Amino acid sequence: MKIIRLLFIAILCLVIFACNTSSQKNKQAGSTSKVSLVSNGVRIDYTDTGKGDTTLLFVHGWCINKTYWADQVAYFGKRYRVVTIDLPGFGKSGKNRTKWNTATFGQDIKNVINQLGLKNVILVGHSMAGNIVLQGAVDAPENVLALVGVDNFKSVGVAWTDSVNAMKEYAEAMAAMKKNFKAVAFDWFNKGLFYKTTSKALRERILNDVAHSDSTVAIACQEWDNFNDAAQLLKAKKKLYLINSDYQPTDTTGLVAKKIPYKLLEIHATGHFPMVEKPAEFNKLLDNVIADIEHY
Questions:
Q1: Are 229 and 156 in contact (CB under 8 A)?
Q2: Are 55 and 126 in the same domain?
């Protein structure tokens, strides 16, 4: 019995040692327990991949989620730290708040940067997230290297030719969306955001995510909040990189007139979602952006 007891103790010690060794290896490999991100009382779901002195923080657009950056995570995660988030109100993040404006989302970006201890951050924002990452850069200037807009900032500093009618049309569109969110949103995507080459599978994926979005949050995100992108770009003092599809032209006259540093890289034959429509080409363009940032 004494021998059996000694053997049991020896085995137990080996198990404990093995567990401790495995735990230590995991820590060295960066497989530590995941930080719980909370911003403005809302939990933020995210992924954190790879290592490096530079961090790429990807932020999705309206009614979609962080999974749309999967190709970028796989490609860039081998060389950089890559973080993707579900904005509050979307994907797997919480939605227990009432403010869904650019200022509040910008605070979320700052809080993600601070809570994950991100340094040398390149903020990549698709669609409506362009303004959001811009506000994040204004709020956390010391952590951010540059801004990358994905199919957005297409008319910075360019005044509307008929602002009265434009605002009237906007108000009518918002009223219609509040009355029948799904029908109006689907019409918007089908007529303005998809291109003839956008695959049926991708169209269905996007429309499914739109259909399952919280309409209250989605509509609130579209409410006019007087965000001045030109003024904020000047305040941020960061170079703006644009990876824009040319299905709709990018007017850079305002950027030039206001002397906002920028670089436009166009991607052809895609709709509003170039990172999933042509991921390989998109990744090469983002590679070029990163190289330029490193020498800027």
A1: yes
A2: yes
Q: Are residues 219 and 244 in the same domain?
A: yes
Q: What radius of gyration do the chain's Cα atoms show?
A: 22
Do 57 and 81 fall into the same domain? yes
Range of the domain at 13: 1-33
**pLDDT at res. 162:** 65
Q: How many domains does the chain have?
A: 2
pLDDT digits over 12-60, tens only? 333 333 334 433 433 333 334 589 999 999 999 999 999 999 999 999 9
Kindly state the average pLDDT of the residues 124-152. Answer: 98
**Which CATH number do you get for residue 245?**
3.40.50.1820
